[in-house]
């Protein structure tokens, strides 16, 4: 068995470690490029959402590298994600690929397939203690890749040498790919933190602060969203992203809950009273949280036609007015042009800057 | 006399504005880009040079528009700003109490919401040209009417024919269909104007509160038929202002921004630029499947700037004689590669 | 007598008799928005975010037309009316969309949650009891009204099953003529039954000599039986009904069905995936069945729809001649 899985930012680092440690032969999907997107767009239904297309591209590129087993998660709706695997399966069947789909779906659709999928994904049998260690180290790796990205976002606006920042962080993520023990992981982590602390920073002036909200895939996957975080950072904006795979996984597991998400849901309540699938309610709640924390603006990233996020967008029209908070909605799909997106992001930052200048002037007048 | 230069290079037209320190326009021009922004830039500079006041001195330069970075390098800009901000700044200068800006250019359109002199929200149509000037030009050619006559004809129509379709191609087929049904040219043109306004409003204005005064700018604002269609759309209830300098508002905004951000020494390259030879070409970097299209600007045979490489590996600094040799190799490889893909017929 | 507004859109076409009877039995005057027209669409377009699908925009236009005329808006949050399934996220969030876009006061919005996904019938009752409470009615009054309403609803569904379209029953229109040859018209009821949105599609088919057969005319048990053919059904009830009906007719001939039209709203999430399954199963199992996917939004031109319908009908007739006389058709590839 040669197993593969779709990309989601640096999820491949943690998953690769996990499956390799369990003795599963892993085929890493090639990085998402224009080619990946082209393949997915060509084969997937025209009006399907963009993540379905890109992950289909991942699968096909992996199959061409020799993968014969596809690991994928399912879902219970009402967002389309839970049905991706079914559509991808039928497309791959029609193309004549001889591959096996291992679908980790909700036990609601039967305990037997659920346990079978778990069994297929757990490779060789380890002692409970070793299994626990392996899983917990994979979890740490995932958390650390997210931390590194958070650091990159926060520091990009202030760091003197932006290329050096990228080198430090990309280098650390690359080294994580070959981790084999807890001790090694801790060493990489320590060295990366030292390198980051050693970066030369500009004086912290009154920086603009922008929060990112949106759908879990597009709001994180830099190779899909034109790296909006970098664009903002290069314009001198401090960026925080409320979307996180760690929190997503925590919330999906049956025995844990994400505090972050629950808090956001609570904050969304006056505007959106119920879960509407995907991250719709998170987008609303996190936007309100940013408003209360005094952020200058919010960027809302989601796949074009994403149903939960369109509900969020409808609701956010009022949040925008009530909190007097500029929000830039960016719907991403294969037709999104880079030039237009850059123009809109730059104009958005101008809006935030001018508002800030004006509010200062107003204070002085008082 | 302190002067400020604003340059707006769009996909269809290139605009220049020379402005004095009191924000008055001293000279301006409006040219076709015709797919060659560098030629358009030189032509614009020639015009500005010919109309340059004696004892004038350029203190700062601003560029905007889709080719703002290229223009910034060629002309030498102190500030490079996106066209949304530039248009908003110019509208605010002309009509300080403005609350909404409509801008319809050749290939894109913008809507800007302004409250208390600050941009509050904006929308930009980047997906399709159904609400833009090229849509009208295209139909004018098809109907065999000079575009200048277009607006006047629309005003003559008693009623409009409803032209369906969000897409230019579909609108065109619907228009032909209506022609075949025997509607007159004037009615069809009025229908086209209404379709453009409807598309503009549907694409950009949904969910936004449009308050007046509305400043309507961009090349299309010259068209009486469209202005009337906007008035009709709002049932005559909103005040729509078309400023006299509607065609060059972006460039004017760039000049105003240049004045705001004026450095101690301007980066302006001088009017010698007109005499210099520039070369603008692109190649596909094939080092990874992203196959970025890298755009190169050469001045007098020297690489001055590069754009479009996502990983950032291509920089003027990395350019050497060797790179040029490599480049010819890359170009050859690209040709070979494209032959391959065609013959394999996937 | 207080007035309750019932916007004519989305699930209205499924639950109109239930809702109307329920409210009237509770002693309210029901105000239904007028059939969709140009003005309603315009209000919908100007009051919604641009990316939301056309039927929701139309629905919001209907809401807008009622807002100033009624004391309450009836907008139960129809999370689910089938065990283990959902409605689409936009329907889940509909009350919130209305509340925020129109700044509609909470106390006048009847948006209690009706959710049968986990709790079955109890979730159904709970929702209606809560609406009754909000309107100041006792549990007994509410239950009485609900059981009368359910009776009306059942007889409405029976009549639909016998071949009458919801719009005919709701507005007392003259039924469409009946022909032995039928087209399987699949699509959400708010597309199939709103003649303005679908540009009189049913009438146009009748003019061409075809009646329509919809997923609401096929008994539930047949739909569910057909759905067993796919490894995992979707989690959207109405899309499942569409899928089940398609699978049923791909496998079994009957009802005089000569071809299949899938009427889709341009940005419909569930149908974007379910439609793909239908198309692929069709290709695998019964490629000769004429199929047309008709996408509709606010920009759709009528001329294009007519052209496609006529071509589709031609295709049906060519196919038939081909079968009868082994005559090769221009469509045979």
UniProtKB/TrEMBL annotation, chain A:
Residues 19-72 form the DUF2229 domain. It holds the Pfam family DUF2229. It comes from the Bacteria. This is Acyl-CoA dehydratase activase-related protein.
UniProtKB/TrEMBL annotation, chain B:
Signal peptide: none annotated. InterPro entries: ATPase_BadF, ATPase_NBD, CoA_E_activase_dom, Dehydratase_Activator_Redct. Coiled coil: none annotated. Keywords: Iron, Iron-sulfur, Metal-binding. SUPFAM superfamilies: Actin-like ATPase domain (SSF53067). It holds the Pfam family BcrAD_BadFG. Residues 5-258 form the ATPase BadF/BadG/BcrA/BcrD type domain. Its cofactor is [4Fe-4S] cluster. This is Acyl-CoA dehydratase activase. The lineage of its organism: Bacteria, Pseudomonadati, Atribacterota, Atribacteria, Atribacterales.
TrEMBL record, chain C:
Gene3D superfamilies: 3.40.50.11900. InterPro entries: CoA_activase_DUF2229, Dehydratase_Activator_Redct. It comes from the Bacteria. Pfam families: DUF2229. Residues 3-218 form the DUF2229 domain. Signal peptide: none annotated. This is Acyl-CoA dehydratase activase-related protein. It comes from Thermatribacter velox.
């Amino acid at each position: 068995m040669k197993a593969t899985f779709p990309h989601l930012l640096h999820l491949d680092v943690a998953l690769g470690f996990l499956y390799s440690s369990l003795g599963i032969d892993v085929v890493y999907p090639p990085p998402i490029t224009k080619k990946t997107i082209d393949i997915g767009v060509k084969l997937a239904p025209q009006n399907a959402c963009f993540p379905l297309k890109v992950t289909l591209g991942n699968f096909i590129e992996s199959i061409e590298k020799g993968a014969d087993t596809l690991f994928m998660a399912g879902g219970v709706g009402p967002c389309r994600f839970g049905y991706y695997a079914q559509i991808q399966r039928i497309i791959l069947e029609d193309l004549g690929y001889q591959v096996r789909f291992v679908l980790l779906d909700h036990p609601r659709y039967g305990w037997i397939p659920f346990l079978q999928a778990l069994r297929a994904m757990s490779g060789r049998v380890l002692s409970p203690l070793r299994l626990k260690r392996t899983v917990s180290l994979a979890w740490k790796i995932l958390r650390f890749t997210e931390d590194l990205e958070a650091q990159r976002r926060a520091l990009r606006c202030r760091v003197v040498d932006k290329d050096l920042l990228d080198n430090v962080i990309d280098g650390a993520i690359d080294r994580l790919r070959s981790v084999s023990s807890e001790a090694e992981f801790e060493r990489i982590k320590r060295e990366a933190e030292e390198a980051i602390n050693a970066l030369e920073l500009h004086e912290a002036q009154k920086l603009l602060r922008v929060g990112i909200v949106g759908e879990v895939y597009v709001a994180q996957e830099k190779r899909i969203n034109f790296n909006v975080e970098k664009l903002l950072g290069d314009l001198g904006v401090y960026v925080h992203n409320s979307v996180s795979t760690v929190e997503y996984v925590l919330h999906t597991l049956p025995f844990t809950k994400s505090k972050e998400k629950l808090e956001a849901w609570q904050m969304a309540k006056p505007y959106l009273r119920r879960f509407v699938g995907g991250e719709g309610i998170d987008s609303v709640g996190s936007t309100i949280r940013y408003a209360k924390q005094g952020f200058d603006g919010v960027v809302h990233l989601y796949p074009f036609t994403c149903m939960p996020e369109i509900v969020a967008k409808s609701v956010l029209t009022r949040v925008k007015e009530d909190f007097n908070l500029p929000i830039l909605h960016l719907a991403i799909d294969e037709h999104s042009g880079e030039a237009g997106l850059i123009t809109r992001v730059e104009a958005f930052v101008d809006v935030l800057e001018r508002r800030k200048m004006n509010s200062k002037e107003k204070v002085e007048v008082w | 006399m302190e002067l400020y230069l604003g340059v707006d290079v769009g996909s269809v037209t290139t605009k220049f504005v020379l402005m004095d320190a009191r924000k008055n326009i001293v000279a301006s021009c409006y040219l076709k880009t015709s797919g060659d922004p560098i030629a358009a830039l030189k032509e614009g500079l020639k015009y500005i040079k010919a109309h340059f006041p004696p004892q004038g001195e350029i203190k700062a330069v601003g560029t905007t528009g889709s080719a703002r970075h290229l223009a910034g390098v060629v002309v030498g800009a102190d500030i490079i700003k996106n066209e949304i901000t530039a248009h908003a700044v110019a509208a605010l200068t002309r009509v300080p109490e403005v609350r909404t800006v409509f801008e319809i250019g050749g290939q894109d359109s913008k809507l800007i919401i302004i409250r208390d002199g600050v941009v509050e929200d904006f929308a930009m149509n980047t997906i399709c040209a159904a609400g833009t000037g090229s849509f009208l030009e295209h139909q004018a050619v098809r109907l065999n009417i000079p575009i200048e006559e277009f607006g006047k004809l629309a005003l003559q129509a008693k009623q409009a024919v409803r032209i369906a379709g969000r897409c230019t191609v579909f609108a065109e087929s619907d228009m032909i269909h209506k022609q075949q049904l025997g509607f007159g040219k004037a009615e069809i043109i009025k229908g086209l104007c209404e379709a453009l306004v409807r598309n503009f409003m549907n694409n950009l204005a949904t969910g936004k509160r449009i308050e007046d005064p509305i400043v309507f700018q961009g090349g299309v604002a010259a068209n009486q038929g469209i202005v009337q269609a906007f008035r009709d759309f709002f049932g005559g209830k909103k005040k729509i202002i078309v400023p006299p300098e509607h065609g060059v508002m972006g460039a004017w905004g760039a000049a105003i921004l240049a004045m705001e951000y004026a450095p101690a020494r301007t980066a302006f390259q001088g009017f010698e630029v007109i005499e210099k030879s520039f070369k603008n070409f692109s190649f596909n970097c094939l080092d990874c499947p992203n196959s970025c299209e890298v755009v190169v600007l050469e001045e007098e045979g020297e690489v001055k700037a590069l754009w479009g490489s996502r990983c950032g590996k291509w920089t003027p600094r990395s350019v050497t004689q060797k790179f040029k040799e490599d480049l010819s190799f890359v170009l050859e490889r690209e040709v070979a590669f494209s032959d391959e893909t065609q013959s394999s017929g996937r | 007598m207080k007035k309750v507004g019932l916007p004519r859109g989305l699930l209205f076409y499924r639950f109109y008799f239930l809702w109307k009877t329920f409210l009237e039995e509770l002693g309210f005057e029901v105000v239904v928005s007028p059939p969709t027209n140009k003005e309603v669409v315009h209000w919908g377009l100007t009051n919604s975010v641009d990316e939301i699908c056309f039927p929701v925009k139309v629905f919001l236009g209907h809401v807008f037309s009622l807002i100033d005329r009624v004391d309450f808006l009836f907008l139960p949050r129809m999370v689910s009316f089938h065990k283990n399934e959902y409605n689409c996220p936009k329907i889940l969030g509909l009350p919130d969309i209305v509340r925020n876009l129109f700044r509609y006061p909470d106390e006048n919005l009847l948006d209690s949650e009706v959710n049968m996904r986990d709790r079955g019938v109890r979730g159904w009752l709970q929702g209606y009891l809560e609406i009754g409470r909000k309107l100041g009615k006792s549990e007994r009054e509410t239950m009485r009204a609900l059981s009368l309403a359910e009776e009306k609803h059942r007889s409405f569904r029976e009549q639909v099953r016998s071949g009458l379209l919801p719009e005919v029953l709701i507005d007392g229109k003259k039924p469409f003529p009946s022909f032995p040859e039928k087209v399987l018209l699949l699509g959400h009821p708010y597309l199939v039954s709103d003649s303005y949105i679908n540009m009189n599609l049913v009438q146009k088919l009748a003019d061409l000599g075809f009646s329509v057969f919809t997923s609401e005319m096929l008994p539930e048990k047949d739909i569910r039986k057909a759905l067993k053919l796919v490894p995992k059904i979707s989690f959207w009830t109405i899309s499942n009904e569409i899928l089940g009906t398609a699978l049923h007719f791909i496998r079994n001939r009957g009802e005089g069905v000569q071809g299949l039209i899938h009427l889709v709203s341009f940005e419909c999430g569930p149908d974007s995936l379910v439609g793909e399954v239908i198309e692929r199963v069709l290709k695998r199992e019964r490629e000769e069945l004429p199929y047309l996917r008709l996408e509709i939004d606010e920009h759709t031109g009528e001329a294009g729809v007519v052209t496609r319908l006529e071509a589709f009908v031609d295709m049906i007739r060519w196919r038939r001649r081909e079968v009868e006389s082994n005559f090769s058709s221009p469509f045979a590839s």
